Amino acid sequence: MMSILKLARRALVIWVIEAVALLVMVGILPGAAVTDVRSAVIAVVVIGLLNVFVRPIVLRISAALGIIPFVLVAVLINAVLVAAAAWLLPGFTIDGLWTAFLLAVGLAVLNAVFSAMLSINEDDSFYRNVIRRLARRRIVQTDGLDQPGTVLMQIDGLAEPSCAGRLPRAACRPWRPGSGLAATDSTAGSVRSRR
Fold it and tell me: Total domain count for the chain?
């Protein structure tokens, strides 16, 4: 129950931040306008809902096009969603796609600045929640863990004379041609060159 209250409080704070950021950007950009604070708050909700429902679908489709089209679509989708919100709401107007693009970039920048100032770290909470969810789903299988096995370990830069007498002989065996061991790194090469 407490986590739901925290999420609701976080959503409310972010909603207020976005509404303030929209009012600031409307004051800066000459082609954007809102009639009142209520229209700004509703516009933020509509932009957020469009980002939640439309953006993932468009990005999923554009991911198959390649990296350059994907980046272009990802950048332009915010402008299109802001323009769509202005088209849907009577109290929020945008005079063109360029103004919508600047407004979307400004909202993102102001959101990042205000969130950093208020120590709202969405990424941290997102990853923490994903890890918790995965930990609850994970089923630890202990079958077969009581049987002996082999652990292979490579310590880069540790030559045979360094570990002689400290580890079992088999653990300090240097690479030799025909030994069946792969010489894949500089350590094996340095051991080989000393022989």
Answer: 2
